[in-house]
Write a structure and sequence with these properties.
The protein is an alpha+beta fold. The chain contains 9 helices and 5 strands. Strands 1-2-3-5-4 form a 5-stranded mixed β-barrel.
């Protein structure tokens, strides 16, 4: 089972990368996020890999970091979400925003991904919300939270405020997630907005 590729970038495609490992080219399907962060052709590269073996094919899925790989694994546990659809979701919503979108039951954020409609977005939220403890950071927790989540209202208010200021929804989700990690789950909306704006200004 291939878990990592380390070699040279041989070729880049909109949804894949070919990595030359000692003269052998491995094609790994990737999110647009990963593809955009890869170095130019001919440069050294390292990809974390999930290998899917079927009767008629072997597909490799590559990730620039562990956060994206772990979210890929979690997303593909949802009924109706295959590997390519999971990559589509990760292309539309950054890993650091996914946990917050699920906790906030934000179907709109998930339906930004090609192939995800309102019904599937709701299913993803329903199946994963108990697996995401606290305001999920870049890497999703795998254990069920012991205490109920008590702060979605402040979170939702902060996201809405940033959107009213003209910030895109995905960017607002990421900024509030980062603010909540700094301030803690009990932070008030005004504090989340202030720190969220600071994150966006970086």
């Amino acid at each position: 089972m291939i878990a990592k590729l380390a070699g040279l970038v041989d070729h880049l495609e909109p949804d894949a990368a070919v990595v030359d490992v000692n003269g052998v080219g491995y094609r790994a399907f990737c999110s647009t996020r990963t593809v955009s962060r890869l170095p130019p052709v001919g440069s050294p590269v390292r990809l974390l890999v999930e290998t899917h073996v079927r009767e008629d094919h072997i597909h490799l899925y590559g990730f620039i970091d562990a956060a994206e790989r772990d979210w890929f694994r979690l997303l593909t546990t949802v009924q109706g979400v295959g590997a390519r659809l999971a990559l589509s979701i990760l292309s539309a919503v950054a890993p650091e925003s996914l946990g917050l979108a699920i906790l906030a039951q934000d179907k709109l954020a998930l339906t930004q991904a090609e192939g995800v409609g309102p019904r599937l977005g709701a299913r993803i939220i329903n199946e994963l919300r108990d697996k995401v403890g606290g305001l999920a950071g870049p890497e999703p927790p795998t254990s069920v939270p012991k205490e109920p989540i008590t702060y979605p209202r402040a979170t939702a208010d902060a996201i809405s405020a940033l959107e009213n200021l003209g910030v895109g929804r995905t960017e607002a989700l990421g900024a509030v997630a980062a603010a909540a990690r700094k301030l803690g789950g009990e932070a008030a909306a005004d504090a989340l907005i202030k720190v969220g704006l600071e994150e966006l200004a970086r």
